[in-house]
Amino acid sequence: MSSVATIPHMKARGLTVMSTRLQDQDLVFDVAREQGVQTKDSLFSPQATHERRFIPSFGWHPWFSYQIYDDTVPGATSYDGSSERSGIQRWTPGPSAPLPIHSRDPGEAGEGTVRPGGEVGLDKAFRIPESWTASTTDAEKTQRDEGLTPGGREGRQLSPHRVSMDHQSAILKAQMKLAGEMDRAASVHGVQVHGALYNVLAECWKGHEKEVLSKREKKKIAANAENFESSDDDDPEKTAKQRQSSSSRKRNRSRRAYYIHPSVPAAVFFSFSVAINWDPEAGAEADKNKKTVDAIRATPDDRILIESDLHTAGDRMDQALEDVCRLVCDIKGWPLREGVGRLARNWRHFVFGDES
């Protein structure tokens, strides 16, 4: 919060700022009232003063999903000790509160304000931090950064407890359903759960898939556009079998291929940051960096986004955005000005649904 005043003076034209838990939702809300973007035209207009470049996103991060009670599960208990695995206990949150996505009317943040959903998702690696207790040592307490919003880890040790993937998935589904009902984009976090994450998202769009014709079907339509006589090849049952066979051949593809398959009715983007995806001290051939290079090259040009992944605005965030922008342009082989324009259009598509 100490860096909020720097946002109107940043180089970045627009910032999509994510809430992650109860403690920061009202903070994001209040900043949006003062600096929130009203319309996309006001953001991109050459006459805009750019004092309003803040786009709030309200969501519950998987790290904090244990704070939410899923009241759709009959007989849920506060702790399920029977689901231990490899000595690590699994936590099922007990009754505390229903899903409080936001306690105030988001419309109060400013009429016309765009509000994506975020940050939501799944995280297999996350472990619940230990609580601050009377036994916490003075040395541990001095590690706390008073400038951080309460409710985060704040230097606490991690416990052996993890949040069950079933519970995380239930919380994610609830938020994705809400985003869909409100026609909002969603920023989705995923760590070591590519398959589970895909399954949750695919369940959301199930029944709305786009029809995808095989190459044979497309050629046949083109060659016989005026021929309406039926034939064995027009048999719907046979066509369905052909599609099933084609789908089976693609099962070994990466999850990225599934997300961008032509049948998917949603526009799925992939976001990169230097903080998470790149080691500046290592060369491009380092394992982590090589994977990032491969991933950026494989991501379609119109589905790539950049982010800072920082909690601090101002010069530090501007630099992080510039660094990842230059990285993506270098890997993609884009001239810098062209690349900046591409990334801006992608962000605009993600936030506003504007494909122009």
Automatic annotation (TrEMBL):
Residue numbers spanned by region Disordered: 77-165, 224-254
Biased composition (Basic and acidic residues): 138-147
A Pfam family assignment: TatD_DNase
PANTHER family registered for this protein in UniProt: CUT9-INTERACTING PROTEIN SCN1
Protein name, entry field: Cut9-interacting protein scn1
Organism: Apiospora hydei
